[in-house]
Specification:
There is one protein chain. The protein has 2 domains: 159 residues, Glutaredoxin; 81 residues, Immunoglobulin-like (Sandwich). The chain is α+β, with helices and mostly antiparallel strands. The N and C termini lie far apart (52 Å). The protein has 6 helices and 14 strands.
Length: 275
């Protein structure tokens, strides 16, 4: 009887998700400058959604968010900030004053949205989806305070929730950003295609790059803690886009290889070093 109940419960969860079928990309939002955008424009990118405030004990996380965006932001990752005054009254300003605070104090360059309401009964639609399993199909995760973080994959699916105390540069978040895209949905502007020639390897990771417009790139290798252990700019000819990374001094293990083309097209590959 218990087994039957569990099977019926699992079926109910699947049917509930199938009936809602909503993703992050189904919603619109208003930017802090007053433009209405569709969140579908982030299809093919991982997204971190953060509710922000200018006068909170966690406000210095703006600096960490900007550092994260400078390191990984681009064709494969975005950060979206939603200012909110619902938690402690710590975001009382207008959109203009919030914008000036963010750019003047923390040099924020990721997308900030217009101030929203997250607490009921005036919850903005995208946060109804983020907080409720009945909408996102995964988990109930109510915003508890400022600088709560939600992770969304390339297909717009709800992936994870982190509370205020988890720093944006936490290894779990960085590892997720660097993890391979398994959704099958890619950012349409991406002209870069890289593939491993040999892996695992003893002394070199060999990479073949394709893409008609690619003429130069930057190669970065990250360990599973998000530390950059190797960086190299590369120039190559149109018909010889092959390069190697010497790894003889690296420890055995899993690494993430990030390749950024001159036009800001990016790709991340998971590689293994074995000696």
């Amino acid at each position: 009887m218990k087994t039957l109940f569990l099977l019926l419960f699992a079926l109910f969860v699947q049917l509930t998700f199938a009936q809602t079928g909503e993703t992050f990309h189904d919603f619109n939002a208003v930017t802090i400058r007053g433009d209405t955008i569709s969140l579908s424009q982030y299809a093919g990118k991982k997204v971190m959604v953060v509710n922000t405030a200018s006068y909170c004990g966690f406000t210095p996380q703006y600096a960490d968010l900007q550092a994260l965006y400078q390191q990984y932001g681009g064709p494969t990752f975005e950060i979206i900030g939603f200012p909110c005054n619902d938690f402690g009254g710590q975001e009382p300003g207008t959109n203009g004053s919030i914008d000036s605070f963010c750019t003047g104090n923390y040099y924020i360059s990721f997308q900030m949205m217009s101030r929203v309401s997250i607490a009921a009964p005036d919850t903005v639609e995208v946060y109804k989806w983020l907080q409720n399993a009945s909408r996102n199909g995964v988990a109930d995760a109510a915003v508890a305070w400022n600088f709560n973080k939600y992770l969304i994959d390339e297909a717009g699916n709800w992936i994870a929730y982190y509370p205020s105390a988890v720093n944006p540069l936490d290894p779990a978040i960085v590892n997720w950003i660097l993890s391979p895209n398994t959704t099958g949905i890619v950012e349409t502007k991406d002209k870069l295609s890289a593939s491993l020639i040999s892996n695992p390897v003893s002394n070199f990771i060999a990479i073949q790059l394709s893409g008609e417009q690619a003429s130069s790139c930057k190669i970065q290798l990250f360990d599973t803690k998000g530390n950059c252990v190797y960086v190299q700019p590369c120039q190559f000819k149109a018909h010889n886009k092959r390069f190697s990374i010497p790894v003889q001094d690296f420890q055995n293990g899993v690494y993430f290889l990030k390749i950024t083309e001159s036009g800001n097209s990016q790709q991340v590959l998971r590689v293994v070093v074995l000696h």
